[in-house]
Here is the input.
Amino acid sequence: MPKTAVRRRHSLRWVAAAALTVAASVGTTLPVAAADAPICPQVGAFCGFYSPTHRIDCEVNTGGRTGPDSVYCKTLEPAQSASMDDRGTVTTCSGQSCVGDAAEGTPTLAYGQTVSLGPFLCLSERTGMTCTAAHGRGFVISTAGIKSVG
Here is the structure.
């Protein structure tokens, strides 16, 4: 068989496989845990993100990297932070000792988009970042302050 026929046959196999993959995914919906933006890859991971203004940044830990499963968000002006465990228990802190720098290369979570990782869900809004645990309890953080929700 000539080389061009072999190449064409392999190309057709690749096209057929790609078409099957697309066809199989057309009617499916993504689970909530996939979130709107693929910023956080999976449970068992550590994920950080900024609000669009970069005035708020958050970290979600579901892999034991920095202790038990938790969410931590902060603003630098004013210097404040909120952290939450997987039951939705919120702890707040104010002052320079409560904040640090976000990791280099931290992605931005667009307004209206969510990150869902493990029991946690964070929603980026123009009014601030809302993060809740599986029980609906959590916090809203903005440059105006921190409020408990749920």
User: Anything to note?
Assistant: The two ends are 69 Å apart (CA to CA).
